[in-house]
UniProtKB/TrEMBL annotation:
Localization: Membrane
Molecular function via GO: L-glutamate transmembrane transporter activity; L-lysine transmembrane transporter activity
Domain Cationic amino acid transporter C-terminal: 522-571
This protein's name: Cationic amino acid transporter 5
Main localization, broad class: membrane
Length: 591
């Protein structure tokens, strides 16, 4: 491909000609590591020696709204095309969310942890998700960039917190696609009357990793290729597929209720209340796709109008749909008979509607296909903005001049997801994914409180320290409540202390810390109570997960922090201080 002159954005949002265009396909070492810290082994040793000072600098530094909207976007060299409306975002919401959770995890969690009370699990996780949706909506309107929660946390909590978010976002995107792709194979097997694992290759590897899934790899590759071609084209495909999916869902609800038996709801909570919340923490994965909509703000024609309509509208409808479908499944079969891998198809087969199981399986395949399609679209935009900050190599930030899409970032997400999907089981993936998702949403609620109550030059030092102490009280009491529930759910003494402590921390922010900023267009209502409740519910659901999920999460986090200390820290330090032959990040230091 011959070099072309490509436009870039200046700080006023206007286009200006790039001084020299280069081929999009570039693989030189400097395209991956252009920072001075990696210029030579000697320079790298010097950077490692300065690690403590650089860590202090990165803890103190904050990005700004202007930097995220200006300097960082220019690093993609070409602009993403503003071609999406609220209609596109609404259907992206349906496409990215419905399919993975309701068709994949409902049967697993109803059978193993909640029984018929899986309905309450969806209610609990849905309410928690809606609290996070409020936070995302306010941020996406005010900072409409592709980075989503990474950009928001970078502005409000700083570079190190943003790296933790970035690492978990990449982990979430890779694992999420892998989990759905493997479920796609299970439903395809159901469609042709085969056992769930019939289309996988059995090996002698450890349990949970011993079934190779080449079909999942192919599905990921096809959806990634489509996402690379065009955002608007992907949206059109999603419209059609999601409309068909709505018809399938309507069939499942109506036909399921016609064959429902209220007696199957007894016993309603066979595993007790802890089982309900354990399942809620897992099925939270079903709501995780909504954050993809926030990443498309950079390609939305009118973010201040389109994002609230698309995000809040689609998630409200999806929450109701999930609860009704979970109720249908619970009434069609005893919870002990629910198929863990292809629950709805097997349920219709059990009531004599064997032909209906093919409709359900086909609808589930369609749903999971759009989840993969919209998922790779959104997560590639996360990855693009993360690369703009140089936490990962900046070559992945490039936007293709012809398609207006981040081809490199899309390929990175797809290849990593395909490698994991080939080996790992859904059970291994879903628990780890839920920890990562809940952790990010907790950070988002914290970032919103910081945004509302702290502005450098406006908030006094006394009020800043007071805000910090009260936030720690909210987070600490939320962790304490989760620990009490996980270890001794029947003992009330801990809650008598911890619940009032959480309420006191929230009330303290409302009464003792003056608001420093008001939302420009749309804001989360009942601040600080709703963001504080979001922190508490996300931490609580995290505490409901099993020990193994946290062990895997801890190992992954440790590996990510090692990468940050060895690579990401030095790359972002050089960029923030303008040492890459270009502009810095226009950061606020010592915030």
């Amino acid at each position: 491909m011959s070099p072309q002159q490509t436009p870039s954005l200046n700080d006023g949002g206007k286009l200006e000609a790039a001084p020299e265009a280069r081929s999009y396909w570039r693989w030189h070492k400097d395209d991956f590591f252009p920072e001075p810290s990696f210029a030579s082994w000697g320079a790298y040793r010097g950077a490692l020696a300065a690690t403590p000072a650089r860590l202090r600098d990165r803890f103190a530094g904050r990005s700004t709204d202007a930097a995220e909207l200006g300097a960082l976007r220019r690093r993609s060299e070409n602009e993403m095309r503003r071609c999406l409306t609220w209609w596109d975002l609404t259907w992206f919401g349906f496409g990215s969310v419905i399919g993975a959770g309701i068709f994949v995890l409902t049967g697993q969690e109803a059978h193993d942890h909640a029984g018929p009370a899986i309905v309450l699990s969806y209610v609990a996780s849905g309410l928690s998700a809606m609290l996070s949706v409020f936070c995302y909506t306010e941020f996406a309107i005010e900072i409409p960039v592709a980075g989503g929660s990474f950009a928001y946390i970078r502005v409000e909590l700083g570079d190190v917190a943003a790296f933790v978010a970035a690492a978990n976002l990449i982990l979430e995107s890779v694992i999420g696609k892998a989990a759905v792709a493997r479920a796609w194979t299970s439903y395809l097997a159901s469609l042709i009357n085969k056992p769930a694992s019939a289309l996988r290759i059995q090996t002698s590897l450890a349990e949970g990793y011993n079934e190779l899934d080449p079909i999942a790899v192919v599905v990921i590759a096809v959806t990634a290729a489509l996402a690379m071609l065009s955002s608007k084209g992907t949206s059109r495909v999603n419209w059609v597929a999601s409309a068909v999916h709505v018809l399938v869902i309507a069939f499942v609800i109506v036909a399921g209720f016609l064959h429902a038996k209220p007696s199957n709801l007894t016993p309603f909570t066979p595993y007790g209340v802890p089982g309900v919340f354990r399942a809620a923490a897992i099925v939270y994965f079903a709501y995780g796709g909504f954050d993809n909509i926030a990443t498309m703000a950079e390609e939305t024609k009118n973010p201040s109008r389109d994002i609230p309509l698309g995000l809040l509208g689609s998630m409200s409808a999806i929450t109701v749909i999930y609860c009704v479908m979970a109720l249908v499944l619970s009434m069609m079969q005893p919870y002990t008979a629910i198929d863990r891998s292809a629950a709805f198809s097997a349920a219709f087969g059990s009531v004599g509607m064997r032909w209906a199981q093919y409709v359900v399986a086909l609808g589930a395949l369609k749903g999971m296909t759009t989840v993969l399609l919209v998922g790779v679209l959104g997560k590639a935009r996360y990855t693009t903005h993360i690369a703009r900050s140089h936490i990962i190599p900046p070559v992945f930030a490039l936007v293709h001049p012809r398609t207006g899409t981040p081809v490199h970032a899309t390929a990175l997400v797809a290849v990593a997801s395909a490698c994991i999907a080939l080996f790992s089981s859904l059970k291994v993936l879903s628990s780890l994914l839920s920890v990562s998702t809940l952790f990010i949403f907790m950070m988002m609620a914290t970032a919103l409180l910081v945004r509302r109550y702290y502005v450098r030059g406006v908030t006094t030092r006394t009020h800043a320290l007071r805000l910090t102490a009260l936030l720690l009280l909210i987070i600490g009491s939320s962790i304490g409540i989760a620990v009490c529930w996980a270890t001794s759910p029947g003992r009330w003494q801990g809650y008598v202390v911890l619940v009032p402590a959480w309420a006191a921390g929230t009330l303290g922010i409302q009464l003792l810390v003056p608001a420093a900023r008001a939302p420009k267009v749309w804001g989360v209502p009942l601040v600080p109570w709703l963001p504080s409740l979001s922190i508490a519910t996300n931490v609580f659901l995290m505490g409901s997960l099993g020990k193994d999920a946290f062990v895997r999460f801890g190992i992954c986090t440790a590996v990510m922090l090692i990468y940050y200390v060895l690579v990401g820290l030095h790359a972002t330090y050089d960029v923030a201080h303008g040492a890459c032959g270009g502009e810095g990040d226009d950061e606020v230091l010592g915030r």
